[in-house]
Design brief:
Length: 457
């Protein structure tokens, strides 16, 4: 069984893939064998013309592309929101409509991005395939975060410019204050969106998998060894994220402030993530192998077509992410809805819908190791790599993004991690434990739904 291409399980369990070259070599060997049989007076098929036996045309690139979209009719139907989203933005519709259309457009784009990434990865070896899946596994969240970081940097530059002009006009204080607030708004959006992805994957996705799979089976069993590692990595990630938040309360700081501490810790977290990949891909790969599945996968799309689709889908995601980021705050104001609820709960759904469905379907088929790898593995990737990576990106570009999530969010995430670890650590689960995780997620939703303001990250 191949895990869903969209997420971390592909990184920790790379499969042996059949490239198009290897596929053609096998076909040529089969054809040669048939020729020899025919030369000896035998017809390996029992009947038919030699041309039908030797010269079988592979599916066309167009046919394979059409099959890709036909295989997922619901996601294909949602693609109608891609042009509608462009119309909403360029025709200057209301912020709520721009947000809604871009939100709906990103759902199928994120789903097909995972499928196309897998097609490209199949043409490569296991190491490169794992790297591709790690890079594009959370591409939607990454693109949204990069756009928000860039917006924050632009607002900071605008604040500096406004402060200079305000000094001449005697309005330096008010101008600087207004722009710095907008900068903090975009930085908060990065933190909240990635935080929401971590919570959604380890509570909602994992809980739904246990809940629905447990309806069919009284006990759900899985391998404890990788689960123990997942739990340790989650606690490590959240603990390291908590350090800058605690450091913020120290009144007397020597040298650098919270930003400096965040950047140092971010580099350390990325180093731990690289070590984790080396551990799971090389030295202890056997701990993460799934012996129940078929590791042979054949590419359905030619490599040039797959790369072209990957580029087009990524470009469309960047456009709609741009529309979405700009519409978040006006939408919250227009609908009188909590800004934090939109950022923590709604936006993370965009990049995780296809992943959610894959994890649940695999769990219902009894593939619990793979389902847990998708749900918890993705949370680890975001917490241990993507969040610190965005801090480094902001630093390089001149931004001010830090790991200061404040104690409000740290307590919520750390409590959720403890709940998840306590449930999965015994190597078995059931529908009731799944309902506990889902219930915890809805408690988090209720909390963020009624939190006012936008800077309590």
């Amino acid at each position: 069984v191949s895990a869903h291409p969209n997420k971390m399980v592909e990184v920790i369990r790379p499969h042996r893939r059949i490239s198009n070259l290897e596929k053609r070599e096998r076909e040529e060997a089969e054809r040669e064998e048939r020729r020899r049989s025919i030369d000896d007076g035998e017809n390996p098929s029992g009947d038919g013309d030699i041309n039908e036996i030797v010269h079988r045309e592979p599916p066309s690139a167009l046919g394979a592309t059409v099959d890709l979209f036909k295989g997922k009719p619901i996601l294909s139907a949602l693609l109608v929101f891609v042009p509608v989203g462009f119309a909403a933005f360029y025709l200057d519709w209301s912020p709520a409509l721009i947000f809604a259309t871009s939100f709906m457009a990103l759902i199928p784009l994120a789903g097909f991005l995972g499928d196309v990434t897998e097609e490209v990865a199949i043409h490569t070896n296991a190491a490169i395939g794992a790297l591709l899946n790690a890079s594009f596994g959370n591409a939607t969240e990454l693109i949204i975060s990069c756009i928000a970081v860039k917006r924050a940097i632009n607002q900071a530059k605008g604040a500096a410019s406004g402060a200079a002009e305000g000094a001449v006009e005697g309005a330096e204080g008010s101008s600087s204050k207004a722009m710095s607030g907008d900068e903090s708004h975009f930085n908060d959006l990065v933190q909240l969106t990635l935080l929401g992805s971590v919570l959604g994957n380890m509570l909602l996705v994992l809980g739904s998998s246990f809940l629905l799979a447990g309806v069919k089976r009284p006990e759900l069993t899985y391998n404890r060894k990788p689960v123990d590692i997942y739990g340790s990595l989650l606690i490590l990630s959240i603990s390291m994220l908590a350090v800058p938040s605690i450091f913020e309360f120290i009144p007397d700081k020597i040298g650098g402030g919270t930003a400096t501490v965040s950047r140092i810790i971010s580099l350390g977290m990325i180093a731990f993530y690289v070590l984790y990949l080396f551990f799971s891909l090389r030295t202890h790969r056997n701990l993460f192998d799934d012996d129940d599945g078929d590791d042979d996968e054949e590419a359905n799309l030619p490599l040039p077509i797959a790369i072209g689709l990957l580029a087009v889908i990524t470009l469309l995601i960047s456009f709609h992410s741009d529309f979405l980021v700009d519409a978040v705050k006006p939408t919250a104001e227009q609908l009188n809805l909590s800004y934090m609820f939109i950022a923590v709960i709604l936006i993370p759904i965009v990049g995780n819908v296809a992943e959610h469905a894959a994890a649940i379907m695999l769990a219902m088929k009894g593939k619990m190791d793979v389902a847990i790898g998708i749900a918890v593995g993705s949370s680890i990737q975001i917490a241990l790599f993507m969040i610190p990576f965005m801090v480094i990106v902001s630093w390089v570009l001149g931004g001010t993004l830090t790991l200061n999530f404040h104690m409000f969010s740290i307590v919520i995430v750390f409590t959720s991690v403890l709940v998840v670890k306590s449930i999965i650590q015994d190597g078995s689960s059931n529908w009731f434990e799944g309902s506990l995780l889902v219930g915890m997620y809805f408690a988090v939703c209720a909390c963020y739904l009624f939190v006012g303001g936008e800077h309590i990250v």
